[in-house]
């Protein structure tokens, strides 16, 4: 009964979405106020019904109701409760429902937090979100109904893919989806502005916090996925250039360009149509990512069911969304004025170059991901595009981005003098060159030229941003600490958010450089009692024993790690066989540290108690995710800036009156 | 129901693909010198496991990957050079066996295509920058400016010049 209620709730949500897409928009075009005021209640109603459907599916999982096909395919009565919940989005249908839930959630959030916005704008934004919601709800109801029943009812479910039975992966998809779907808000704001024909700095200010929040979620989601791959897949890598990783990276790259471009649009009313194009691209790439993953065009561990009917639907939907929004753009954008004048050396120029580089990265990822398909389609042979290609391409561009990142924020809007900039940054530059020399010493670089380059670039980012903070506080009263605190609680949040995020980039660079060049990997066979020495650590293997988990059996190795004479860790890597079947899973054991990880993963039992296994020494690997965490934190700080809060508190007439004329 | 059967069949296939792996570790391949061992390791890291998703021959535990590793080992022991081994493998499996696609006419598109696109982007950016220098400052009329200011300036939030 409950699954049918869920199904019904989805149908009602679809009807509400249709109303949400229609009435407010029509009202905003004809000036019909009652129709426009329907936007908010419709958005709340949409959230309520999708939430009911979602709750119904969660209930089916918790009750192990295997009469529901989707539950039978993705759950098992032995599954721990937390994974029963995360199993809701462990497959195709459920992850779509999660997507729809988040879409409705973002819509309701826009409705709730846009009190200061003119009604026609709110109506249009919510209407555009309703249109996207129609697409997803229809997709679910027509091709991927999570509430489909199964008869006869199987006694037991087929279990959740063991790879997904993990805390990191339980929260990775929701974070990622929050980001993907969050870009739909930026998209909706852009389209609303195009429909209204009113693209101005106010528009940028309204959509900026939403975009940044979406970007923060996407950053966390991608970092979680990378972290999960590192500890769960058992071969110690943190990024594989897998098509699905690429699919999530592309919206992130364009989203990063977008949050920077929005800054220019807000501050200087420039790049307006370009910003709109980026907003459209960020969401389109989110959809494209979904298409690539779900349609089975690219095979990957993430690809769930491959079903031509679904692929066709997504393709049509994609064409409609991208084609429609680009057509609207082509129609409206030429009317947009392109903002003020700026010189070659100015903040605007720097941000334009930032955009060029981020779009270039996106092109690289898109090209590399699709190249095998293109080659096959045109009978040019089967080629393999993997990490070597991506790494080379990224390394060719990344240093320019890092160099620019030290200069751009120090540059003034509109016009700057080369000598002023030099005077500001020369200390940072000198210190970075010093770091370059220091890191070139063979003892640090290990003979690799990328190590000094990476370290120097990270140092450049650190010192140039410290300089910025100093410059900013130079003329304030009191000690620098007091000044900074006052500034932080005043109008400085977006500045400090930027500094934190950029220092995250520096940290990320150090992590990537060090782990790529100095990691040690050993692939060996050990007997119980054996010891192996690596990177100053001694690994003693005490043997392996059988252990039983709630829904798996495992061989569990026992290692003691010594540094010198001191025992620093006891590690228990596992090789698990899940009762639900499937491949055996490696559960690596990691002794994590700020400066290094020590990582053991069990391979195969070789006989006589011997095991084939891998030992890793991963210097600075945590800095990769900590860096990503800082980037996300920086975004969060920037969003808490006072001007957004006061903008929210303010409901005064001028805004409404002026924009209503639009 | 058919979907269930299909996915069951798929997981069975995956199981077969991963194979009941026989004993393997890279340490067990014996060479005369550590340098040769490193060379072997580097070589198999350049080769793609043909039946896996995005894994090199060095990382994969699939049966075919083990066979190929043994093959490469055998050829190295027989004194064949790296190039000879690569040529042999390319002949047998095509360029797909190489993780890093070689630079040749059919891959020019792959290696240079993105840079052509980036070049076009850079051209547009440079043109924009140059034209921005020439544009009239502030295309907004005075009335528009005032309106914009009213929109932007929160009464309670004095704006800092460069945040």
UniProtKB/TrEMBL annotation, chain A:
<dbReference type="GO" id="GO:0015232">
    <property type="term" value="F:heme transmembrane transporter activity"/>
</dbReference>
<feature type="transmembrane region" description="Helical">
    <location>
        <begin position="620"/>
        <end position="640"/>
    </location>
</feature>
<keyword id="KW-0812">Transmembrane</keyword>
<feature type="transmembrane region" description="Helical">
    <location>
        <begin position="394"/>
        <end position="413"/>
    </location>
</feature>
<dbReference type="GO" id="GO:0017004">
    <property type="term" value="P:cytochrome complex assembly"/>
</dbReference>
<feature type="transmembrane region" description="Helical">
    <location>
        <begin position="209"/>
        <end position="229"/>
    </location>
</feature>
<dbReference type="GO" id="GO:0020037">
    <property type="term" value="F:heme binding"/>
</dbReference>
<keyword id="KW-0472">Membrane</keyword>
<dbReference type="Pfam" id="PF16327">
    <property type="entry name" value="CcmF_C"/>
</dbReference>
<feature type="transmembrane region" description="Helical">
    <location>
        <begin position="495"/>
        <end position="516"/>
    </location>
</feature>
<keyword id="KW-0997">Cell inner membrane</keyword>
<keyword id="KW-1133">Transmembrane helix</keyword>
<feature type="transmembrane region" description="Helical">
    <location>
        <begin position="450"/>
        <end position="469"/>
    </location>
</feature>
<feature type="transmembrane region" description="Helical">
    <location>
        <begin position="47"/>
        <end position="72"/>
    </location>
</feature>
<dbReference type="InterPro" id="IPR003567">
    <property type="entry name" value="Cyt_c_biogenesis"/>
</dbReference>
<keyword id="KW-0456">Lyase</keyword>
<feature type="transmembrane region" description="Helical">
    <location>
        <begin position="121"/>
        <end position="142"/>
    </location>
</feature>
<comment type="similarity">
    <text>Belongs to the CcmF/CycK/Ccl1/NrfE/CcsA family.</text>
</comment>
<dbReference type="GO" id="GO:0016829">
    <property type="term" value="F:lyase activity"/>
</dbReference>
<dbReference type="GO" id="GO:0005886">
    <property type="term" value="C:plasma membrane"/>
</dbReference>
<dbReference type="Pfam" id="PF01578">
    <property type="entry name" value="Cytochrom_C_asm"/>
</dbReference>
<feature type="transmembrane region" description="Helical">
    <location>
        <begin position="425"/>
        <end position="444"/>
    </location>
</feature>
<feature type="transmembrane region" description="Helical">
    <location>
        <begin position="274"/>
        <end position="292"/>
    </location>
</feature>
<feature type="transmembrane region" description="Helical">
    <location>
        <begin position="96"/>
        <end position="114"/>
    </location>
</feature>
<protein>
    <submittedName>
        <fullName>Heme lyase NrfEFG subunit NrfE</fullName>
    </submittedName>
</protein>
<dbReference type="InterPro" id="IPR032523">
    <property type="entry name" value="CcmF_C"/>
</dbReference>
<comment type="function">
    <text>Required for the biogenesis of c-type cytochromes. Possible subunit of a heme lyase.</text>
</comment>
<feature type="transmembrane region" description="Helical">
    <location>
        <begin position="352"/>
        <end position="374"/>
    </location>
</feature>
<keyword id="KW-0201">Cytochrome c-type biogenesis</keyword>
<feature type="transmembrane region" description="Helical">
    <location>
        <begin position="177"/>
        <end position="197"/>
    </location>
</feature>
<feature type="transmembrane region" description="Helical">
    <location>
        <begin position="312"/>
        <end position="331"/>
    </location>
</feature>
<feature type="transmembrane region" description="Helical">
    <location>
        <begin position="249"/>
        <end position="265"/>
    </location>
</feature>
<keyword id="KW-1003">Cell membrane</keyword>
<feature type="transmembrane region" description="Helical">
    <location>
        <begin position="6"/>
        <end position="26"/>
    </location>
</feature>
<dbReference type="InterPro" id="IPR003568">
    <property type="entry name" value="Cyt_c_biogenesis_CcmF"/>
</dbReference>
<feature type="domain" description="Cytochrome c assembly protein">
    <location>
        <begin position="89"/>
        <end position="295"/>
    </location>
</feature>
<dbReference type="InterPro" id="IPR002541">
    <property type="entry name" value="Cyt_c_assembly"/>
</dbReference>
<feature type="domain" description="Cytochrome c-type biogenesis protein CcmF C-terminal">
    <location>
        <begin position="315"/>
        <end position="642"/>
    </location>
</feature>
